[in-house]
Amino acid sequence: MQATKLGLTSIRTDGDKIEIVNQLLLPHSTEFIEIKSIEDAHEAIKSMKIRGAPAIASLAALAFAAELERGVKASADFLASPEAVKAYVKPILAYLYTARPTAVNLGAATRRLTATLDASLEAGKDASAICADLIAEAHKVADEDVGRNKKMSQWGGDWLVDVVKQNGGSGSGLNVLTVCNTGSLATSGYGTALGLITYLHETGKLASAYYTQTTPYHQGSRLTALELQKLEIPSVIICDTMVGSLFQHHDIHAVVVGADRIARNGDTANKIGTYNAAVIAARHKIPFIVVAPISTVDLAVADGSGIPIEHRPPIEACLVRGAIHPPPPNGGPGASTQAVVMITPPGLDLAKGVYNPSFDVTPAELITAIVTEKGVATRRPGEVVFDLSGVV
Length: 392
Ligand code: MRU
Hints:
single chain, 7-stranded mixed beta sheet, 4-stranded mixed beta sheet, 9 helices, 16 strands, globular, binds 5-S-methyl-1-O-phosphono-5-thio-D-ribulose
């Protein structure tokens, strides 16, 4: 097994200083932005300077911890009593939860911190001890992500190799398609679906990763392309419209995607375009695998119809972001000049003339396996839904 190459970082911390890489500017410039407040974190998540379900949960948790740490250092008023801590903390958690609606990891993180608050209050702890518990729990939310990503990547990778072998293949030379960006930029490190692809590469099983551009935000062409390049994983970009053609003309062994929310029956919300890929994969009998941490499974939602789908501002479907092309020779001044280019005609009715859901729901019956850090769930023969009890 090759050593894991250093992936990109979405968040870096130094004491209570938090910085995120502005993903709106990647891959042409790498700029870190300091997150100095809860409002900064909320804005960065809402405007997609940081995105990816686990990464936004990690940032929310770290910003929350830093806010409490600053308060403790300054002997803030909320340290007056346990009730004062509660009155201070609850609105912050509620506010962070409103930043983006579909990725349940953010809600799972804020619910987990609320549960810590309630447990510490019930245990009769004083204000400082309650804050210490909350800060520790918030750091855990961010820190535990990398380890579980590696676990699920291994579960899913080994499972896929076995399936390919059972179907008469050698289990190596695998070609895998992914959608969106699910690597270290979307998580605290290693990634979910892109983690599985990385694992296949590290174990010598991967021939090539294919990835869709993922319009309109281009998480594929801007972020996954950069991650695969840094990891030196052989890869091929395709436009979102080329999935069918790819399956018709190339031997693709699996489609592997992340998730923003998985309902109790296995219906899965993920980046817009995932459903299209699943439908075409089913037609071609290509395994379709969802890789996501347990915190992405929302047992309170029975099926996909209950998953809230975020619609992004219409203007975002009319723009592309990138750098001026061709760049000046020899990487001279302006080589990474950013451009945001309008691709629709002036006068297009933004209020009525644009459909821009950020996610779609892939029904469970199109999903072959759901992988979490606990293992791999598959549907029983003849069943169209999942029993996720073994993997949550
Ligand atoms: O809108 P985004 O870029 O936050 O959407 C990201 C995705 O849909 C990812 O596939 C999902 O969050 C899983 S990231 C490990």
